[in-house]
Here is the input.
Amino acid sequence: MTNSPTNLPAAAETFLADVAERAGSRPVAAARAPGRVNLIGEHIDYCGGIVMPIAIPQSCYAAVAPDSAAGEHVTLTTTFTDETVTVDPSAQIAPGHAAPVGSWASYIIGVMRGFQDRTSLAPLAGMRVHVHSDVPLGAGLSSSAALEVATAFALQSLLGTQLDPIDIAKLCQRAEHDFAGVPCGLMDQAASAMCRPGQALMLDCATDHVQWAPVMPDASLVVVHSGVSHSLAAGAYAERRAACESAAAAIDCEHLAHASIESLAALPDHKVPFARHVITEQQRVLAAQAALHAGDADAFGRLMSASHASLRDDYKVSCEEVDALVDAMSAVEGCFGARMTGGGFGGCVIALAEHDAADAVRTAADGCKDQCPNMRHIPVEASAGAEVIA
Here is the structure.
């Protein structure tokens, strides 16, 4: 099952009109999928941990429309490049098929392969798949998952498959592994496919069990992009995942997030910091869940700050620009806490603040412009997950 259409935002209406102009006909299927911000629980989804993301308003849109120039193929186009990629839907799709691994088109092609394993792609012959996104690229807000999930929801609408959102998330995760070369966990795709307005998704990545926690109505979320773009396909992400898997094997634990802090004593020194982050981050997520239900912003903010310290010092995925923003924003009276969010190596900082202090937190971030000349503010709120829009 997929989410039902809601009243379309202006961006969606503009997108559908643009597709009609480009392809010469209205889309036969289209979908929207959001980016995400992770409140806490970083780098533990691939360790079997529980994560706490929200969806954000910024979204990717994907549409399928008849294209007389496509012939028996399907053409892939997007608003962020003039490149056109052509795919033969009757051929067996494999990584590198029609586009290099890790290219923008590879994410779409990987999703096509996921559906090809389940049904015929014949209805795509003679079609154009066109995508547009306002999720900032390289900001750690999961623009890639939004692209995958929007494509998947649109294709499902056309092909008539009946996958639940969690199954769509897994299909998209596999596409990112095999076709984009990023061994990501499930959090990003699940958040994009499943999130609800006003709530944080509590996803147990070991069991797929889902709970929901209310995002505090009496506090504001402030998100600032450092202006430093990251590339998870560059290797550092894969190195950390491999290190965590090695640590789990060394202590004979299926999921490193389930290990005890005492188990660190069995690890060689060089593996301890990564494992310590995962184990303590899982503990922080559980405490953060209790803080959300209790409406305790002070406690939640302290956990955010502790999470950032662990990501910076143990997991080593922060950078000077992000650290400067965290320090400046955290220092404002009325800011409960701040942390990097996303895979790291740049990207965004998220802070939790009193409503009346939110502007001061943004101003404090502006004070880092000498160090972060390309920084920008990104308005967010806990938003709805993916939906079919046409």
